[in-house]
Amino acid sequence: MDIEGEAVLKQAFLKTIYWPHPFEVDIAVVRLSEGRLTLEEFEGSMGGGRLENLAGSYIELDRTGYRPRTYALRADCIGCTVRYPAFMPPARGTARLQFLGTAPDDLVLRGRVQVEEMVLRETLNWQRSVLTFRRRFTETLAQAEQAGLFELDLSFEAEPGALGLDNNIGNLVGSASDFRVLGDTNHVTLQGTVRVEGGAIEAMGHNFEVEPGLARFRDRESWFPELELGMETEVLNRDETYRIRYDLSGPLDSLQIRPSSEPSLSEADINLILLFGLTQEQLAEADLGDVVLAAGGAGLGTLGESTATTLGQTVAGTDVSALVPDRIEIVPVYTDTTGATTVWTVATKEIVPGLLTLEGGFGVGTGRNMTVPTVLRAKVGFQRNVYLEGSWLRDDASSRAYGNFGLDLKFEVDID
Fold first, then answer.
1. pTM
2. What is the mean pLDDT of the chain?
């Protein structure tokens, strides 16, 4: 039995498994004749932009069940905002796409996209994002053993300033030429180069100016680009101004970071300048030599009341004993998932003896992470070994940008 005829669709909302964004149809005229379904007229939109040049697209159906067999679809999307693949930021621009081939094993979505704006604005937790991104890529590798719905061959162009990052990591702008999304719907690969034109990144409490650099996507077994990037900041020391520089290279998930400075400083002094504004020598002159030796040497131990009292006495010659910590501890913590060690400096002060104790600190990472984690705790004691502890922790493992809060009832047992 042959079926022929014409159908008119008005004011419709269409979705398909092949594409994540719905189509808003103003009018569509479709004719079925001799097993070919042809789109003779179309007016509509997608992602806030207009769809054009669809007229003449067709699908050939098999004669038995009238199932789609051969696709020859084309469309221009002018000023559309789409997010595809899902792990990429939303992009606004003009796309000229074709969906061609024979079902089910020879279909391809190809085309060129001129990006007007693609900016990553989502807040990122660096460690969590890296692990999640790596897990998703591993999952797509497993899915790659099965055939996807169709292959991908998309080329992206972006003029200077069209690409960007604007979130808690920093503010960057860039461009791209012949950046390609390849693979299929089960396993997407990225290929090409993104040019970083400049911007700023906040690290270790300072704004670093980012120089022009490159992010190359060329490893088909990873979504992480290889970076060639440099960034600098100025730190005003009590003696002079230091220009601190970091050169970054290698895959984004395992960056090699090379610090340098002008005037020249050791790596340890560079970290201390960024955190405290003082070198090891200057800290020693401020009667904090024990702290420097503990942090830079063994990286562990407990500083007694004598050091804390000395510190209090050197602050502008005033009596600040009420603010002097009872104890300062330097404690290293190794994280197996990242292979990095964070050296924590924690100060403790008993406000009400036996009842209320405050604790605060910050950590310095020895791995590739350049953020400074922070912790605050307040302990309210009920008995000698029973207390209620409220805490706030902000680090790369925090699920929220402002950190995580906790409330715990704790018991301590002394074992001789």
1. 0.64
2. 78
